[in-house]
Amino acid sequence: MIGHFFSKYDPSQNGKSKFEQLLDLFTQLLTYTNGDAAEALDWLNQLDRQYQLTDDEYGMGDFIEELKQQGYLSEDVATGQYNITSKTEQTIRRQSLEEIFGKLKKTKQGNHNTFKPGAGDEINPETRPFQFGDTLEQIDFTNSIRNAQINHGIDSFQMREDDLEIRETDFKAQTSTVLMIDISHSMILYGEDRITPAKKVAMALSELITTKYPKDTLDIVVFGNDAWPIEVKDLPYLQVGPYHTNTVAGLELAMEILRRRKNPNKQIFMITDGKPTCLKIGKKYYKNSFGLDRKVVNRCINLAAQCKKLKIPITTFMIATDPYLQRFVQEFTETNHGKAFFASLDKLGAFVFKDFESGKRRTVY
Asked: Can you tell me the distance from the alpha carbon of 45 to that of 66, in angstroms, rounded to the nearest whole number?
């Protein structure tokens, strides 16, 4: 019988090779294992045994060998230890961007556009009459020539200043962002992994800025008992520690970083799941994990007010549903005139990206 024979095809894989399919799983697992390649490979082997991810033609040994050949994995010859490379780190960031930003494709927001016309790089469909000081590059010659023909006729063609039309271009806002990530112990309490979604958001946001908005800056600050900056390349290895939540230290460091940035637009994104419970006074730590300690809370509120004076809005992404914590966030947000989102873990990325994109639309004077 003459006809066509269709081999087994899984449309969800979009024609990916076996290596690409396993690489997707491997990079996902690396996010959960804090960049530990050996642990991620162990998990992948367990998944392979349970779900038959490989076959006789292409096994896990082939996959590991190809990871090394393509520069995703390095092996210490002396110890036999596997480590991921910078290529793998970039792949994880790109995958996080596709996973999170891909959900926002149907929204109408984005592009960092503002509503302020001027000497920008995005063409505006609107035109206006020529004014003194406009450059030749702004002249819409098609409309200007048409105006000259209408006003003076074709036989004695001439073009005057009144005939010229200017095609406006739009500014694109340039922003400095500090992303604060809570790495206190509560981010993994109660059997819920909250740090991994936060890491994915940070990696996706950094990849978006470096590829689509290279003139923007993104600094990442983590805070526990203290606060310190980390590099984008450190994100896959980020872990929760046995820390309290020193929100004050995180805000102070974020403000210090933004003071050094020259961009007129500055903002702080803070991802946290718990209340501020710690202060550093001199060389000692003041801690209170029970309830909202006014000594700690008041310092947070004071910093929110300082950020408002410096025109630094703070957007808080709260991964908690406790009513008394939400009241604190609302008080904090009202003091700063910022924003607050009470986001579930699966919607955290969408909230961050929508706010980041829409924030670029405001006019800056």
From this structure: 16
pTM value is 0.73
pLDDT averaged over consecutive 10-residue blocks of the chain (365 residues)?
57 75 94 93 95 92 95 91 94 86 48 45 67 79 85 82 78 83 88 86 87 88 97 94 95 97 91 89 93 93 96 88 86 92 76 70 36
- CA distances 112 to 58, 212, 316, Å, are 45, 10, 20
Residue with tokens 């082997």: 45
Helix pair 86-101, 18-32: axis angle to 10 deg:
90
Whether residue 73 contacts residue 82, with contact meaning beta carbons closer than 8 Å, is answered with yes
Distances from the Cα of 338 to the Cα of 27, 308, 329, 334, angstroms: 35, 8, 10, 7
Which two tokens mark 260?
Answer: 């050094």
Dihedrals phi, psi of 322, to nearest 5 degrees:
-65, 125
